[in-house]
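User: Lipoprotein, Paenibacillus amylolyticus:
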Amino acid sequence: MRRTFVLILTSMLLLVACSNSGHNELQSWAFDVVTWKNGVYKVTTDTVPTTDVEIEIGTIKKHSTNESDKLPNLFSNKYKKGTKLFKVKNVETNDYIAVEDNETYYRAVKMDGMNTEAD
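Assistant: Predicted structure for Lipoprotein:
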């Protein structure tokens, strides 16, 4: 009887532990992204010289590490709310933009065929 009770208790604990695992883990993205004007931009490790940075064009409004096929505008999976986005001199925003991170500007290249949720 005692052996059966221990077996049932162990089984219940195992089931509860398995059912709760993974809910609080960070999601793994293939790359860092920001969104702007319904476009999705892949952030690269390439830097943009400060002298090439023009006007501020937006600020990240939502940060999340949860993967989704529906991304809101002004979103990032890496950069926190408040991170600034900039236009680069002599470059169309359809090509790339700059993302400011600790006084360094990183190139974010627009990804063809990927868009954010409609506003």
